[in-house]
Amino acid sequence: MTTTTSHVPEHVPESEGPADGVTAVRPARLIHAESTTEIPVHLLFREQPAAPPAEALPRPAAGAHRPAPDTAREPAPDKEDRDTRDIGVRARAAAPGVDPEITERPARVLPGIAGVLAGVCGAAGCAVTAWWAGVLPPLAAEALGLSVRAGGLGPAQWATFAGAGALGLFGFGGLARGRTGRAWVLELFGRYRGTVRRTGLLWVNPLMLRRRVDVRLRHWRGEPLPAADRGGVALRVAVLVVWRVRDTARATLGVEDHEGYLRACVEAALLRVPVAAPGAGRGAVQATQDALTRLVAADAGPVGVEVCAVRPLRVEYAPEVAAAMHRRRMAALDARHRASVVGSVVDSVEDTVTRLTMRGLLDLDDGERQVLVKDLTVAFCAGRGETGP
Protein backbone atom coordinates (compact mmCIF):
# COMPACT_ATOMS: atom_id res chain seq x y z
CA MET A 1 0.00 0.00 0.00
CA THR A 2 1.35 3.37 -1.00
CA THR A 3 0.87 6.36 1.22
CA THR A 4 0.61 9.85 -0.31
CA THR A 5 1.66 12.79 1.74
CA SER A 6 0.55 16.39 1.24
CA HIS A 7 2.93 18.71 -0.53
CA VAL A 8 2.01 21.54 1.81
CA PRO A 9 4.60 21.77 4.57
CA GLU A 10 3.46 22.43 8.09
CA HIS A 11 6.55 24.38 9.04
CA VAL A 12 8.91 26.33 6.90
CA PRO A 13 12.43 26.56 8.27
CA GLU A 14 13.88 30.01 8.32
CA SER A 15 17.51 30.65 9.06
CA GLU A 16 18.05 33.37 11.55
CA GLY A 17 21.80 33.17 11.12
CA PRO A 18 22.86 32.80 14.86
CA ALA A 19 26.44 32.60 15.75
CA ASP A 20 26.14 29.13 17.39
CA GLY A 21 24.85 27.53 14.18
CA VAL A 22 21.48 26.53 15.65
CA THR A 23 18.66 26.84 13.16
CA ALA A 24 15.42 28.31 14.53
CA VAL A 25 12.13 27.12 13.11
CA ARG A 26 8.91 29.17 13.33
CA PRO A 27 5.38 28.55 11.94
CA ALA A 28 4.69 29.58 8.38
CA ARG A 29 2.52 32.60 7.82
CA LEU A 30 1.61 31.72 4.28
CA ILE A 31 -1.16 29.46 3.02
CA HIS A 32 -0.51 27.42 -0.10
CA ALA A 33 -3.34 26.23 -2.29
CA GLU A 34 -3.80 25.13 -5.84
CA SER A 35 -6.11 27.98 -6.87
CA THR A 36 -4.44 30.79 -4.98
CA THR A 37 -0.95 32.03 -4.57
CA GLU A 38 0.68 33.15 -1.37
CA ILE A 39 -1.90 35.01 0.77
CA PRO A 40 -0.89 36.64 4.10
CA VAL A 41 -2.88 35.21 6.98
CA HIS A 42 -3.68 38.58 8.53
CA LEU A 43 -5.67 39.56 5.43
CA LEU A 44 -8.16 36.72 5.99
CA PHE A 45 -9.38 38.05 9.35
CA ARG A 46 -9.97 41.71 8.60
CA GLU A 47 -13.45 42.98 9.39
CA GLN A 48 -13.75 45.33 6.42
CA PRO A 49 -11.29 44.73 3.62
CA ALA A 50 -10.01 47.90 2.06
CA ALA A 51 -11.30 48.62 -1.43
CA PRO A 52 -8.63 48.86 -4.10
CA PRO A 53 -7.93 52.34 -5.47
CA ALA A 54 -9.62 53.42 -8.66
CA GLU A 55 -6.41 53.35 -10.64
CA ALA A 56 -5.66 49.81 -9.41
CA LEU A 57 -8.92 48.32 -10.68
CA PRO A 58 -8.38 45.81 -13.49
CA ARG A 59 -9.21 47.04 -16.94
CA PRO A 60 -10.90 44.85 -19.52
CA ALA A 61 -8.56 43.35 -22.03
CA ALA A 62 -8.54 44.60 -25.57
CA GLY A 63 -9.80 41.28 -26.84
CA ALA A 64 -12.41 40.76 -24.12
CA HIS A 65 -15.65 39.18 -25.10
CA ARG A 66 -18.41 41.69 -25.68
CA PRO A 67 -22.10 40.85 -25.74
CA ALA A 68 -23.38 40.34 -29.23
CA PRO A 69 -25.95 42.87 -30.44
CA ASP A 70 -29.56 41.86 -30.31
CA THR A 71 -30.20 41.27 -33.98
CA ALA A 72 -33.84 40.55 -33.35
CA ARG A 73 -34.46 44.03 -31.96
CA GLU A 74 -32.10 46.15 -34.03
CA PRO A 75 -31.10 44.88 -37.49
CA ALA A 76 -27.59 45.47 -38.65
CA PRO A 77 -27.31 48.57 -40.86
CA ASP A 78 -26.59 48.01 -44.50
CA LYS A 79 -23.73 49.58 -46.40
CA GLU A 80 -25.79 52.53 -47.64
CA ASP A 81 -26.90 53.43 -44.09
CA ARG A 82 -23.33 53.15 -42.82
CA ASP A 83 -22.11 55.42 -45.60
CA THR A 84 -24.83 57.94 -44.74
CA ARG A 85 -23.89 57.92 -41.05
CA ASP A 86 -20.21 58.27 -41.88
CA ILE A 87 -21.00 61.27 -44.05
CA GLY A 88 -22.95 62.86 -41.17
CA VAL A 89 -20.09 62.26 -38.71
CA ARG A 90 -17.55 63.78 -41.07
CA ALA A 91 -19.85 66.75 -41.65
CA ARG A 92 -20.16 67.45 -37.91
CA ALA A 93 -16.40 67.13 -37.50
CA ALA A 94 -15.73 69.54 -40.38
CA ALA A 95 -18.35 72.13 -39.39
CA PRO A 96 -16.92 75.66 -39.37
CA GLY A 97 -16.44 77.50 -36.12
CA VAL A 98 -18.14 80.79 -35.21
CA ASP A 99 -17.21 83.45 -32.69
CA PRO A 100 -18.92 82.37 -29.43
CA GLU A 101 -19.64 85.99 -28.55
CA ILE A 102 -21.98 86.30 -31.54
CA THR A 103 -25.11 84.76 -30.06
CA GLU A 104 -28.65 86.05 -30.25
CA ARG A 105 -29.94 87.77 -27.13
CA PRO A 106 -32.97 90.00 -26.57
CA ALA A 107 -32.46 93.72 -26.98
CA ARG A 108 -33.70 96.36 -24.55
CA VAL A 109 -36.63 98.23 -26.05
CA LEU A 110 -39.50 100.24 -24.64
CA PRO A 111 -43.20 100.20 -25.46
CA GLY A 112 -44.21 102.53 -28.24
CA ILE A 113 -46.30 104.66 -25.91
CA ALA A 114 -43.11 105.86 -24.24
CA GLY A 115 -41.78 107.18 -27.54
CA VAL A 116 -45.09 108.83 -28.36
CA LEU A 117 -45.21 110.60 -25.00
CA ALA A 118 -41.60 111.73 -25.35
CA GLY A 119 -42.24 113.10 -28.82
CA VAL A 120 -45.38 114.94 -27.73
CA CYS A 121 -43.56 116.43 -24.75
CA GLY A 122 -40.71 117.55 -26.99
CA ALA A 123 -43.09 119.18 -29.48
CA ALA A 124 -45.00 120.91 -26.67
CA GLY A 125 -41.73 122.10 -25.17
CA CYS A 126 -40.67 123.64 -28.47
CA ALA A 127 -44.03 125.41 -28.80
CA VAL A 128 -43.86 126.79 -25.24
CA THR A 129 -40.27 127.92 -25.76
CA ALA A 130 -41.23 129.71 -28.98
CA TRP A 131 -44.07 131.50 -27.16
CA TRP A 132 -41.73 132.38 -24.32
CA ALA A 133 -39.17 133.81 -26.73
CA GLY A 134 -41.87 135.68 -28.61
CA VAL A 135 -41.23 133.99 -31.92
CA LEU A 136 -44.49 132.06 -32.01
CA PRO A 137 -46.56 133.13 -35.04
CA PRO A 138 -49.65 135.18 -34.13
CA LEU A 139 -52.00 132.78 -35.85
CA ALA A 140 -50.57 129.83 -33.87
CA ALA A 141 -50.78 131.81 -30.66
CA GLU A 142 -54.42 132.71 -31.32
CA ALA A 143 -55.20 129.09 -32.16
CA LEU A 144 -53.65 127.98 -28.89
CA GLY A 145 -55.35 130.78 -26.97
CA LEU A 146 -52.08 132.45 -25.97
CA SER A 147 -51.21 136.10 -25.99
CA VAL A 148 -48.53 137.38 -28.31
CA ARG A 149 -45.33 138.28 -26.50
CA ALA A 150 -42.44 140.35 -27.63
CA GLY A 151 -38.92 139.23 -26.93
CA GLY A 152 -36.04 137.40 -28.49
CA LEU A 153 -34.06 134.23 -28.39
CA GLY A 154 -31.52 134.24 -25.64
CA PRO A 155 -29.18 131.56 -24.33
CA ALA A 156 -31.89 130.12 -22.09
CA GLN A 157 -34.37 129.94 -24.93
CA TRP A 158 -31.80 128.30 -27.22
CA ALA A 159 -30.96 125.69 -24.59
CA THR A 160 -34.64 124.95 -24.03
CA PHE A 161 -35.21 124.68 -27.77
CA ALA A 162 -32.31 122.21 -28.07
CA GLY A 163 -33.50 120.05 -25.21
CA ALA A 164 -37.14 119.95 -26.33
CA GLY A 165 -36.17 119.33 -29.96
CA ALA A 166 -33.82 116.49 -29.00
CA LEU A 167 -36.55 114.94 -26.85
CA GLY A 168 -39.04 115.14 -29.72
CA LEU A 169 -36.61 113.72 -32.24
CA PHE A 170 -35.64 110.85 -29.97
CA GLY A 171 -39.26 110.15 -29.13
CA PHE A 172 -40.64 110.09 -32.66
CA GLY A 173 -37.45 108.87 -34.35
CA GLY A 174 -37.26 105.72 -32.22
CA LEU A 175 -40.76 104.48 -33.01
CA ALA A 176 -40.81 101.15 -34.82
CA ARG A 177 -43.39 98.51 -35.70
CA GLY A 178 -42.63 94.89 -34.94
CA ARG A 179 -44.22 92.32 -37.25
CA THR A 180 -44.81 88.62 -36.81
CA GLY A 181 -42.13 86.56 -38.53
CA ARG A 182 -39.70 89.50 -38.70
CA ALA A 183 -36.89 90.51 -36.36
CA TRP A 184 -34.43 93.38 -36.01
CA VAL A 185 -30.74 92.97 -35.33
CA LEU A 186 -29.50 96.10 -33.51
CA GLU A 187 -25.97 97.49 -33.65
CA LEU A 188 -24.58 100.52 -31.85
CA PHE A 189 -21.32 101.88 -33.27
CA GLY A 190 -20.48 98.50 -34.78
CA ARG A 191 -21.28 96.45 -31.67
CA TYR A 192 -24.11 93.94 -31.46
CA ARG A 193 -26.69 95.10 -28.93
CA GLY A 194 -29.45 92.48 -29.27
CA THR A 195 -32.35 91.24 -31.36
CA VAL A 196 -35.95 92.45 -31.29
CA ARG A 197 -38.58 89.75 -31.94
CA ARG A 198 -41.50 91.54 -30.28
CA THR A 199 -44.52 92.70 -32.24
CA GLY A 200 -46.54 95.90 -32.11
CA LEU A 201 -45.47 99.51 -31.60
CA LEU A 202 -42.03 99.73 -29.98
CA TRP A 203 -39.45 102.35 -29.20
CA VAL A 204 -35.87 101.59 -30.19
CA ASN A 205 -32.88 103.81 -29.67
CA PRO A 206 -32.67 105.81 -32.92
CA LEU A 207 -28.86 105.78 -32.76
CA MET A 208 -28.83 102.02 -33.31
CA LEU A 209 -28.49 100.49 -36.75
CA ARG A 210 -31.43 98.20 -37.52
CA ARG A 211 -31.17 95.17 -39.80
CA ARG A 212 -34.40 93.43 -40.63
CA VAL A 213 -34.24 89.62 -40.75
CA ASP A 214 -36.98 87.25 -41.92
CA VAL A 215 -37.33 84.42 -39.36
CA ARG A 216 -40.25 82.63 -41.01
CA LEU A 217 -40.05 79.13 -42.44
CA ARG A 218 -38.86 79.52 -46.01
CA HIS A 219 -38.10 77.32 -48.99
CA TRP A 220 -35.64 77.72 -51.78
CA ARG A 221 -35.77 75.92 -55.12
CA GLY A 222 -32.52 76.28 -56.95
CA GLU A 223 -31.43 75.74 -60.51
CA PRO A 224 -30.08 72.31 -61.56
CA LEU A 225 -26.68 71.78 -59.93
CA PRO A 226 -23.91 69.32 -60.87
CA ALA A 227 -23.85 65.99 -59.02
CA ALA A 228 -22.94 62.33 -59.57
CA ASP A 229 -24.37 58.92 -58.77
CA ARG A 230 -22.59 55.99 -57.13
CA GLY A 231 -21.09 54.96 -60.44
CA GLY A 232 -19.63 58.40 -61.07
CA VAL A 233 -22.06 59.30 -63.87
CA ALA A 234 -22.61 63.06 -64.11
CA LEU A 235 -26.08 64.27 -63.13
CA ARG A 236 -27.99 67.54 -62.87
CA VAL A 237 -30.11 67.85 -59.72
CA ALA A 238 -32.66 70.50 -58.77
CA VAL A 239 -33.31 70.52 -55.01
CA LEU A 240 -35.87 72.05 -52.67
CA VAL A 241 -34.41 73.41 -49.40
CA VAL A 242 -36.72 74.11 -46.44
CA TRP A 243 -34.99 76.36 -43.92
CA ARG A 244 -35.33 79.27 -41.53
CA VAL A 245 -33.12 81.59 -39.49
CA ARG A 246 -32.71 80.30 -35.95
CA ASP A 247 -30.01 82.68 -34.63
CA THR A 248 -30.40 86.15 -36.14
CA ALA A 249 -27.09 87.43 -34.77
CA ARG A 250 -25.02 84.70 -36.40
CA ALA A 251 -26.99 84.80 -39.64
CA THR A 252 -26.46 88.55 -39.95
CA LEU A 253 -23.05 89.14 -38.39
CA GLY A 254 -21.39 85.72 -38.68
CA VAL A 255 -21.57 85.59 -42.47
CA GLU A 256 -21.89 88.21 -45.18
CA ASP A 257 -24.99 86.72 -46.85
CA HIS A 258 -26.63 83.73 -45.18
CA GLU A 259 -28.79 82.95 -48.23
CA GLY A 260 -25.77 82.82 -50.52
CA TYR A 261 -23.93 80.76 -47.92
CA LEU A 262 -26.82 78.28 -47.84
CA ARG A 263 -26.73 77.93 -51.63
CA ALA A 264 -23.00 77.24 -51.49
CA CYS A 265 -23.54 74.59 -48.79
CA VAL A 266 -26.15 72.84 -50.94
CA GLU A 267 -23.85 72.84 -53.95
CA ALA A 268 -20.97 71.46 -51.88
CA ALA A 269 -23.18 68.73 -50.40
CA LEU A 270 -24.29 67.61 -53.87
CA LEU A 271 -20.66 67.14 -54.82
CA ARG A 272 -19.97 65.00 -51.72
CA VAL A 273 -23.09 62.81 -51.63
CA PRO A 274 -23.80 60.21 -54.36
CA VAL A 275 -27.25 61.00 -55.67
CA ALA A 276 -29.73 58.27 -56.59
CA ALA A 277 -29.86 57.87 -60.37
CA PRO A 278 -33.09 58.59 -62.29
CA GLY A 279 -35.55 55.76 -61.78
CA ALA A 280 -34.03 54.57 -58.48
CA GLY A 281 -36.18 53.10 -55.72
CA ARG A 282 -37.77 54.97 -52.85
CA GLY A 283 -35.19 53.72 -50.36
CA ALA A 284 -32.26 55.11 -52.36
CA VAL A 285 -34.03 58.45 -52.80
CA GLN A 286 -34.77 58.66 -49.06
CA ALA A 287 -31.15 57.84 -48.21
CA THR A 288 -29.96 60.59 -50.55
CA GLN A 289 -32.36 63.09 -48.98
CA ASP A 290 -31.25 62.20 -45.44
CA ALA A 291 -27.56 62.49 -46.31
CA LEU A 292 -28.05 65.85 -48.05
CA THR A 293 -30.12 67.21 -45.15
CA ARG A 294 -27.53 66.10 -42.61
CA LEU A 295 -24.61 67.63 -44.50
CA VAL A 296 -26.27 70.97 -45.24
CA ALA A 297 -27.60 71.25 -41.67
CA ALA A 298 -24.13 70.60 -40.26
CA ASP A 299 -22.58 73.27 -42.51
CA ALA A 300 -25.29 75.92 -42.08
CA GLY A 301 -26.01 75.36 -38.37
CA PRO A 302 -23.00 77.30 -37.01
CA VAL A 303 -24.15 80.46 -38.84
CA GLY A 304 -27.62 80.38 -37.31
CA VAL A 305 -29.50 78.77 -40.21
CA GLU A 306 -31.69 75.74 -39.44
CA VAL A 307 -32.16 73.37 -42.38
CA CYS A 308 -35.29 71.22 -42.12
CA ALA A 309 -35.05 69.24 -45.36
CA VAL A 310 -33.13 69.08 -48.63
CA ARG A 311 -35.24 67.20 -51.19
CA PRO A 312 -34.13 66.39 -54.76
CA LEU A 313 -36.97 67.45 -57.05
CA ARG A 314 -35.62 66.62 -60.50
CA VAL A 315 -32.70 64.33 -61.28
CA GLU A 316 -31.51 64.02 -64.87
CA TYR A 317 -28.34 63.07 -66.64
CA ALA A 318 -25.91 65.77 -67.61
CA PRO A 319 -26.04 66.90 -71.26
CA GLU A 320 -22.68 65.30 -72.03
CA VAL A 321 -23.90 61.83 -70.99
CA ALA A 322 -27.63 62.12 -71.69
CA ALA A 323 -27.28 61.08 -75.36
CA ALA A 324 -25.12 58.07 -74.50
CA MET A 325 -27.50 56.96 -71.73
CA HIS A 326 -30.44 57.33 -74.14
CA ARG A 327 -28.74 55.14 -76.75
CA ARG A 328 -27.89 52.58 -74.10
CA ARG A 329 -31.46 52.45 -72.84
CA MET A 330 -32.88 52.19 -76.35
CA ALA A 331 -30.48 49.35 -77.16
CA ALA A 332 -31.56 47.51 -74.02
CA LEU A 333 -35.22 47.97 -74.91
CA ASP A 334 -34.61 46.79 -78.48
CA ALA A 335 -32.76 43.69 -77.26
CA ARG A 336 -35.58 42.89 -74.87
CA HIS A 337 -38.13 43.31 -77.64
CA ARG A 338 -36.17 41.04 -80.00
CA ALA A 339 -35.88 38.38 -77.31
CA SER A 340 -39.62 38.45 -76.70
CA VAL A 341 -40.33 38.25 -80.46
CA VAL A 342 -37.99 35.28 -80.96
CA GLY A 343 -39.50 33.49 -77.97
CA SER A 344 -43.04 33.94 -79.24
CA VAL A 345 -42.06 32.77 -82.79
CA VAL A 346 -40.38 29.65 -81.44
CA ASP A 347 -43.42 28.85 -79.33
CA SER A 348 -45.74 29.33 -82.33
CA VAL A 349 -43.64 27.10 -84.60
CA GLU A 350 -43.41 24.38 -81.97
CA ASP A 351 -47.15 24.50 -81.35
CA THR A 352 -47.90 24.29 -85.09
CA VAL A 353 -45.59 21.36 -85.80
CA THR A 354 -46.86 19.51 -82.73
CA ARG A 355 -50.51 19.88 -83.77
CA LEU A 356 -49.85 18.74 -87.34
CA THR A 357 -47.97 15.70 -86.12
CA MET A 358 -50.44 14.78 -83.36
CA ARG A 359 -53.43 14.93 -85.70
CA GLY A 360 -51.74 12.80 -88.35
CA LEU A 361 -51.86 15.41 -91.04
CA LEU A 362 -48.13 15.11 -91.71
CA ASP A 363 -45.73 12.20 -91.48
CA LEU A 364 -42.29 13.80 -91.61
CA ASP A 365 -38.81 12.51 -91.08
CA ASP A 366 -36.09 14.58 -89.45
CA GLY A 367 -35.00 16.35 -92.64
CA GLU A 368 -38.53 17.29 -93.66
CA ARG A 369 -39.27 18.43 -90.09
CA GLN A 370 -36.26 20.75 -90.12
CA VAL A 371 -37.31 22.23 -93.46
CA LEU A 372 -40.86 22.78 -92.20
CA VAL A 373 -39.63 24.43 -89.02
CA LYS A 374 -37.35 26.70 -91.03
CA ASP A 375 -40.13 27.75 -93.38
CA LEU A 376 -42.58 28.38 -90.56
CA THR A 377 -40.02 30.42 -88.63
CA VAL A 378 -39.31 32.61 -91.66
CA ALA A 379 -43.01 33.07 -92.30
CA PHE A 380 -43.84 33.99 -88.72
CA CYS A 381 -40.88 36.38 -88.45
CA ALA A 382 -41.81 38.07 -91.73
CA GLY A 383 -45.41 38.42 -90.63
CA ARG A 384 -44.45 39.94 -87.29
CA GLY A 385 -42.03 42.26 -89.00
CA GLU A 386 -44.75 43.62 -91.27
CA THR A 387 -47.37 44.13 -88.55
CA GLY A 388 -45.08 44.86 -85.63
CA PRO A 389 -44.10 48.34 -84.45
Automatic annotation (TrEMBL):
Residues 53-66 have a biased composition (Low complexity). InterPro entries: Band_7, Band_7/SPFH_dom_sf. Signal peptide: none annotated. Residues 1-33, 48-100 are annotated as: Disordered. The keyword Membrane applies. Keywords: Membrane, Transmembrane, Transmembrane helix. Residues 67-89 have a biased composition (Basic and acidic residues). The chain crosses the membrane at residues 113-136, 156-176. Pfam families: Band_7 (PF01145). The keyword Ligase does not apply. Residues 173-329 form the Band domain. This is Band 7 domain-containing protein. It comes from Streptomyces gancidicus BKS 13-15. The lineage of its organism: Bacteria, Bacillati, Actinomycetota, Actinomycetes, Kitasatosporales.
